[in-house]
Structure formats: structure tokens, C-alpha cells
């Protein structure tokens, strides 16, 4: 179902003018709720569908079907129909067992043991067992193979087949978030026989244990998978096959959905979402993602070294209006340093829109008359729109912001390539982050830990807090979820109050489908699952 938030507060005259100039006008409640093409009961008739196979239109070309050598979300989504891991994520990014019956970690987070499902075979008839798992983990953790996902498994010291259906993985040092790395698409299992047969060409010949088998890949047009009649999970698959068709042009992708040439498309343009929903048997679905949007604040530069200034910035920005202007209303306000969909998320007391409180904090910090600063960001329409909105909002409390969009290469050099903290020129930076492991660690440590300052990692706020760093380290020294939860709860509280960012929004995932299609959906990290695809008429 399409769910959309609208600005519900009375903004200042300047903000109203800004919204009008941005082309963002309100629909009446009656107009926004009205469904087109509905029957007498108010429901849209089920569209007609021939056959039991579906077509999914996607935005970009596919790169690889080798999970160990894939770093794009889209290719990983298609792999998920054919390949499976020991553990994985459900639609809410909660970890679930898949090819493992059970799993456990040692208290020191160095040894991980998996009990495997019995009776599972790869599509080529190769048995799935402990030796098969060892082959896969040895492959991705071997630096000589130069696989793109090596970094996620470089801590692996050894993998042992304890017995036919028990695997033990030992790390070189403790890493409490390792189970989430095993749930990542990079840890999906490929037939050892296929790896031997195809070598590097395994990227074009995926052989897994999933509900669908690889059929063909015409790199100029489509990739198709077909039903695996011997799939180990009862009741799946429910369709005979799936065709994945890259369609980069938004209008063409939408037209395919309207005519029925495609049964599911993603992404769907946000500006067309409302007009498409409820027409031609189309349902537009938007769900919360784990893609956080924020503005980092360089805490080492005056006046941003004063926490009152950083908090004032948070009170000065109307996040509800920000989502309306930048993302057409499809998103939610950040209420912690990580999105709700991540493991160990802990909600914080929001920085409400309160310009008067912002002015008071600035006065307390000695900036009653405001100051001038600069925000950097990408040279694209969404980033520019976001920075201009921030510029307008902060101007109302006396902060003059100069907006400087940059091409990606220039921006990368000026932000990530800085060798010494003192040489960092960045003051404010508008950016975003998605933690594809589903764990708080990858949503916090690379961005805000004291040892993640550029060029080592992505802490563009140059933020350091010894207590927070100790808690981050403590959370990685154990695999006990209760201990990790307690540590991350305190980390989030400390960092939220320290405000090294202007906490803005968590954008929605956007997809369109025919109303007869069920079981195809986007996960919070923007990946897609079609394993449970079903046509219901």
C-alpha cells in the first residue's frame, strides 16, 4: 500500500514560499485518498494475468552472479532467487536461519558454529554439506582470489568441517557482528562442483540451492530463472519462472507496468507514485528503508566544536518539511543515529522543530547574531534540493549557509582523501548511508567511531568520544546479544545528545506491482526478494 506523509504544521512565510518555488503543493485530503479505477466496493479490480511466470523490470544492468565477487545490490537481489546462505534476513532485516538449522557463537566472538540442514542438494546434484560450506568460505576469505567481498571475511582464520553437517569458523580476533556478515548476500553458497567446472566464469553460471534455477542470461536484454521442482522448502516456488529485464529509462519501465509487460518494477519514480497507484491494476508500495540521510558537522571547527551549536542546528530544521520537499513525502524522520530497521536500534527523544529554542542555544553559545558556513554535497537534484532546504531553514535562526555542490570525484577527494585532520576543509556535508549487514555496528562504527576518521573510514564529523568508542569496542568483543544491545543503546544515547550530525530522514523504498502479484518485495536495504512470488487471481 502507498503510504505518504505530508507537512502538517504551519510553516513560516519564508518556508511556504520555498515550498511553492520547489513545486511542492498540498493535495486536499479527499484528492490524495481517492483511488482511480475502483469498483463499487471501493477496491480496484484484480488485473488479468496469463500464465504462471512473471517479469520484473529493473533500473540497471546486472553485473555478476557470483555472490563472493558482487558489490552491487541489484545483482545480489537476482542471486537471491537461486543462491542461499547459512543465515539471511527476513523482510524486516531480522536474522533468520536458512541453510543452517541453528548457529551459535562463542562468548569471545571468535568461534561460530553452524548446524546444517540435511538432505539439501545444489541444482547440479552436488550435496550441500559441511565440506561445501568450507569450500565457499575458504574461497571468499582467500586474499589470493581477489574477490570483491574478501574484506567481509578477511578475519577468518580457518573453517573446519566438524562432521558432515557441522561447520566451525574461527576468527583471528573477536568480531561480535560476524553473524551479520554471514547473513549478508556475500556469504551465499555456490556448488563446489560448479566452482571447479566454471572457475572465474561462475559469475555467468550460478548454481545454488534456491527455489529457482539459472536458465539463461542475455546480457543485452534479460536474465531468466526457472522453477526448481526439488526445492527443499515445502510450498515454494509458486511461479514457474521469472524474467529480470533491465530498463534504465523511467518512463519505459512505468509503461511496461501499465500495459502488463512487467508485473513488478523498481524503483518507481517518486514523482509518479501517487498518480500511478490505483490505476491499471497497479499498487505502489513504499516501506521504510535503512538508508539514513544526514548532514555531518565537523566537530573540530568553530563554532561546531560547541555541542549547543550542533543541537541548535537540529532544532532549526523541520524534518517533516524536509521529507516533503526532497522526497515527495516518502520517508520518515530519523529518531536515532541509526534507522529503526537495524539490529540494536534504540529510539531517542526527537529534536523537534523549534526555531526559538535553536536561537536560544546559539545565544548561550555566544552566537546570538549567527555565523556563516558552507555545506558540501553531491551535484544531483536531490542533494541540491536538500542543501537548499537546509540553507533556508538555518537562515531563519541567523546561520548563513553557502551551498556548494560537487561532482563525485571532487567531493571524494576533498572529503575522504584528507590525510590529516587539521587539513580537513569540510564544515557541513550532506550525505547518506545504508548498513547492508543489518547490524548497528556497520551503521555506527565507520561513520562515528574515533578511529574511523578519514582517510581510514567515513567519520567526516571528525567526532571523537572516548566513552562511545569504548562501548563500540565492547560490543564487538562479545557475541552475547544482550550485552551488545546494552552497549549500543548507550552509544546511541551519547551520540544523539552530542549531535555530530543534523539528523534528517530515513527514505522509503519504492516499487510498483500488479495487484495479482504477491510475495515480491523490497527489503529495507533496497534489495529485492522474489523467492515467494505468487500470482493470485
Describe this structure in words.
This protein has helices at 13-21, 29-33, 73-79, 130-140, 178-183, 192-198, 250-259, 270-276, 307-316, 319-327, 355-364, 381-395, 408-416, 440-448, 466-476, 481-498, and strands at residues 53-58, 87-89, 95-97, 100-105, 111-116, 156-163, 166-171, 212-218, 222-227, 241-246, 264-266, 282-297, 331-333, 371-378, 399-406, 428-434, 501-514, 517-518, 521-522, 528-529, 534-535. It has 537 residues and is α+β, with helices and mostly antiparallel strands. The strands form five sheets. Strands 1, 8, 9, 10, 11, 12, 13, 14, 15, 16 and 17 form an eleven-stranded mixed beta sheet that branches. Strands 4-5-7-6 form a four-stranded antiparallel beta sheet, covered by helices on one side. Strands 2-3 form a two-stranded antiparallel ribbon. Strand 8 and strand 9 form a beta hairpin. Helix 9 (307-316) packs antiparallel against helix 11 (355-364) and helix 10 (319-327) packs antiparallel against helix 12. The protein is globular, with a radius of gyration of 25 Å.
Topology:
Blueprint: H1 13-21, H2 29-33, E1 53-58, H3 73-79, E2 87-89, E3 95-97, E4 100-105, E5 111-116, H4 130-140, E6 156-163, E7 166-171, H5 178-183, H6 192-198, E8 212-218, E9 222-227, E10 241-246, H7 250-259, E11 264-266, H8 270-276, E12 282-297, H9 307-316, H10 319-327, E13 331-333, H11 355-364, E14 371-378, H12 381-395, E15 399-406, H13 408-416, E16 428-434, H14 440-448, H15 466-476, H16 481-498, E17 501-514, E18 517-518, E19 521-522, E20 528-529, E21 534-535
Parallel strand pairs: 1-10, 1-11, 14-15, 14-16
Antiparallel strand pairs: 2-3, 4-5, 5-7, 6-7, 8-9, 9-10, 11-17, 12-16, 12-17, 13-17, 18-21, 19-20
Amino acid at each position: 500500500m502507498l503510504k505518504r506523509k505530508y507537512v502538517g504544521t504551519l510553516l513560516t512565510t519564508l518556508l511556504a514560499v520555498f515550498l511553492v518555488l520547489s513545486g511542492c503543493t498540498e493535495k486536499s485530503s479527499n484528492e490524495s485518498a481517492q483511488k482511480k479505477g475502483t469498483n463499487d466496493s471501493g477496491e480496484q479490480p484484480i488485473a488479468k494475468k496469463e500464465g504462471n511466470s512473471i517479469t520484473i523490470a529493473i533500473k540497471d544492468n546486472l553485473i555478476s552472479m557470483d555472490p563472493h565477487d558482487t558489490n552491487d545490490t541489484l545483482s545480489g537481489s537476482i542471486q537471491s532467487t537461486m543462491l542461499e546462505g547459512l543465515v539471511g534476513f527476513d523482510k524486516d532485516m531480522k536474522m533468520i536461519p536458512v541453510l543452517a538449522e541453528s548457529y551459535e557463537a562463542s562468548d569471545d566472538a571468535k568461534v561460530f558454529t553452524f548446524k546444517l540442514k540435511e538432505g539439501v542438494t545444489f541444482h547440479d546434484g552436488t550435496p550441500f554439506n559441511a565440506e561445501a560450506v568450507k569450500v565457499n568460505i575458504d574461497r571468499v576469505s582467500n586474499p589470493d582470489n581477489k574477490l570483491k567481498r574478501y574484506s567481509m571475511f578477511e578475519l577468518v582464520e580457518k573453517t573446519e568441517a566438524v562432521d558432515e553437517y557441522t561447520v566451525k569458523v574461527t576468527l583471528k580476533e573477536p568480531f561480535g557482528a560476524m553473524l551479520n556478515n554471514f547473513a549478508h548476500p556475500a556469504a551465499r553458497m555456490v556448488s563446489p562442483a560448479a566452482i571447479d567446472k566454471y572457475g572465474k566464469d561462475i559469475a555467468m553460471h550460478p548454481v545454488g540451492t534456491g527455489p529457482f534455477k539459472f536458465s539463461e542470461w542475455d546480457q543485452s536484454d534479460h536474465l531468466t530463472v526457472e522453477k526448481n521442482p526439488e526445492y527443499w522448502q515445502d510450498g515454494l516456488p509458486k511461479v514457474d519462472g521469472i524474467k529480470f529485464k533491465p530498463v534504465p529509462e523511467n518512463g519505459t519501465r512505468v509503461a511496461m507496468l501499465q500495459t502488463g509487460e512487467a508485473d513488478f518494477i523498481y524503483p518507481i519514480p517518486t514523482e509518479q507514485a501517487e498518480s500511478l497507484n490505483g490505476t491499471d491494476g497497479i499498487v505502489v508500495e513504499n516501506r521504510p528503508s535503512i538508508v539514513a540521510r544526514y548532514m555531518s558537522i565537523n566537530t573540530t571547527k568553530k563554532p561546531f566544536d560547541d555541542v549547543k551549536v550542533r543541537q541548535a542546528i537540529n532544532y532549526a530544521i523541520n524534518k517533516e518539511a524536509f521529507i516533503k520537499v526532497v522526497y515527495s513525502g516518502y520517508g520518515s524522520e530519523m529518531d536515532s543515529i541509526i534507522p529503526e530497521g537495524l539490529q540494536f536500534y534504540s529510539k531517542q527523544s526527537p529534536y523537534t522543530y523549534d526555531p526559538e529554542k535553536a536561537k536560544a542555544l546559539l545565544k548561550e553559545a555566544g552566537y546570538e547574531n549567527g555565523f556563516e558556513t558552507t555545506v558540501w554535497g553531491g551535484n544531483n537534484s536531490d542533494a541540491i534540493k536538500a542543501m537548499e532546504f537546509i540553507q533556508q531553514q538555518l537562515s531563519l535562526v541567523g546561520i548563513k549557509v553557502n551551498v556548494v555542490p560537487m561532482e563525485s570525484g571532487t567531493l571524494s577527494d576533498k572529503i575522504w582523501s584528507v590525510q590529516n585532520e587539521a587539513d580537513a576543509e569540510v564544515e557541513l556535508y550532506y550525505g547518506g548511508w545504508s548498513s547492508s549487514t543489518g547490524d548497528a555496528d556497520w551503521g555506527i562504527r565507520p561513520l562515528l567511531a574515533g578511529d574511523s576518521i578519514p582517510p581510514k573510514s567515513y567519520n567526516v564529523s571528525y567526532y571523537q568520544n572516548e566513552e562511545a568508542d569504548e562501548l563500540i569496542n565492547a560490543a564487538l568483543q562479545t557475541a552475547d546479544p544482550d550485552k551488545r544491545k546494552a552497549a549500543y543503546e548507550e552509544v546511541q544515547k551519547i551520540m544523539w545528545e552530542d549531535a555530530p550530525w543534523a539528523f534528517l530522514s530515513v527514505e522509503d523504498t519504492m516499487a510498483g506491482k500488479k495487484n495479482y502479484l504477491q510475495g515480491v518485495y523490497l527489503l529495507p536495504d533496497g534489495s529485492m526478494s522474489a523467492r515467494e512470488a505468487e500470482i493470485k487471481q
